[in-house]
């Protein structure tokens, strides 16, 4: 296995695993505590429109997908902050329009016949240097925002009414959190795919929130759980020629099962 690490594609995959694990821990925690998971699912599928734009107009994949997810995130933030009873309707519309427009644009692209399954289900072993650069920039941006605005994000996440009393612009930070969730979809796209990104953002957080005593602890623990699942899933994908995204998600699910079993045994003891 050590010899495999000398291959550039495996080195890229390992770096990508670290990046997505941090994203999953930080942004997944925010999505869960703000009850945005369903909204992020809609954004993830809408991101397919960005893939279609990239292919049809020969644009950089990360830039076009990030732009589409950012637009979808801001639209959802505007319409769902105070009218959450419309969430499922809006998600359905954004989801359908994004997917449909992406498919049509790909169909209209002359001579394009590439396999799009990697974008839907991930292909971490196909990560390139340019992908890592885009992921790194988005991750750095996310960490800077969360670090410098942690107090405001924490207040809005747990008690928006109290945040208003503190003079915090709840609408702005609600939109910012959803925007960060959308950008995390772009980071995870090539690794676990648009279909399974929600599992990557929620399963590690599910385990972390059971034992964390603060939002920061939840983020750190979620990142560690996500990294463990990513590394084991990556190894299994390479050794047995499996789909990397599916392998990572199934490993994360297995870890969650072991975690729950361990908690149950601990509580009995």
Give an overview in words.
- The chain is an all-alpha fold and 269 residues long.
- The chain has a single domain, classed as ABC transporter involved in vitamin B12 uptake, BtuC.
- It contains twelve helices and no strands.
- The protein has helices spanning 8-33, 37-46, 48-57, 61-80, 87-108, 117-121, 129-148, 150-158, 160-165, 170-211, 215-240, 244-268.
- The longest helix has 42 residues, at 170-211.
SSE blueprint:
Blueprint lengths: L7 H26 L3 H10 L1 H10 L3 H20 L6 H22 L8 H5 L7 H20 L1 H9 L1 H6 L4 H42 L3 H26 L3 H25 L1
Helix pairs in contact: 1-7, 1-10, 1-11, 2-4, 2-5, 2-10, 3-4, 3-5, 4-5, 4-10, 7-10, 8-10, 10-11, 10-12, 11-12
Summarize the model shown:
With 269 residues, the chain is an all-alpha fold.
Keywords for this entry:
single chain, 269 residues, ABC transporter involved in vitamin B12 uptake, BtuC, globular
């Amino acid at each position: 296995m050590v010899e495999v690490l000398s291959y550039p594609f495996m080195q890229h995959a390992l770096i990508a695993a670290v990046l997505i694990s941090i994203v999953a821990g930080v942004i997944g925690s925010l999505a869960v505590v703000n009850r945005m998971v369903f909204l992020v699912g809609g954004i993830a599928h809408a991101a397919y429109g960005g893939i279609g734009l990239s292919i049809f107009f020969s644009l950089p994949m990360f830039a076009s997908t990030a732009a589409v997810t950012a637009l979808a995130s801001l639209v959802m933030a505007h319409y769902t902050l105070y009218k959450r009873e419309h969430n499922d309707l809006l998600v359905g519309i954004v989801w359908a329009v994004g997917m449909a427009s992406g498919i049509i644009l790909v169909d209209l692209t002359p001579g394009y016949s590439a396999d799009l399954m990697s974008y839907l289900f991930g292909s971490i072993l196909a990560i390139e240097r340019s992908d890592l650069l885009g992921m790194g920039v988005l991750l750095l941006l996310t960490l800077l925002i969360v670090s410098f605005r942690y107090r405001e994000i924490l207040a809005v996440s747990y008690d928006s009414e109290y945040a208003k009393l503190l003079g915090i612009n709840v609408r702005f930070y609600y939109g910012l959190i959803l925007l960060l969730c959308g950008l995390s979809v772009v980071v995870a796209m090539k690794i676990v795919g648009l279909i399974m990104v929600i599992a990557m953002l929620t399963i590690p957080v599910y385990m972390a929130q059971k034992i964390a005593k603060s939002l920061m602890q939840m983020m750190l623990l979620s990142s560690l759980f996500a990294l463990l699942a990513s590394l084991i899933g990556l190894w299994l994908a390479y050794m047995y020629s499996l789909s990397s995204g599916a392998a990572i998600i199934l490993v994360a699910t297995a870890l969650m099962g072991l975690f729950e079993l361990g908690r149950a045994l601990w509580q009995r003891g």
